[in-house]
Design a protein that fits this description.
Strand content: under 5%
Helix content: over 70%
Low-confidence stretches: none
Structural class: mainly alpha
Mean pLDDT: 88
Distance between the termini: 20 Å
Radius of gyration: 15 Å
Number of strands: 0
Largest sheet: none
Length: 64
């Protein structure tokens, strides 16, 4: 059985990965806006929203 410290470390790594993905999507979206590629910018924004909603749902699940 995993110790509480191991679980909190794993959750920290998971949150770090989610944050890295959000930063990557922000970078892609801004690059698309500078290149005047609206389709890619909206796709990155949509993926970012889905990721944020998933993160919020994960947070609510952990609070129970």
């Amino acid at each position: 059985m995993a110790r509480p410290h191991e679980i909190s470390s794993a959750l920290g790594v998971f949150v770090g990965v989610l944050l890295s993905l959000q930063i990557f999507l922000l970078t892609v979206g801004l690059d698309a806006l500078h290149a005047r590629d609206a389709r890619l910018a909206w796709t990155a924004a949509g993926c970012s929203v889905v990721l944020a909603l998933g993160s919020a749902a994960f947070y609510r699940h952990l609070r129970r």
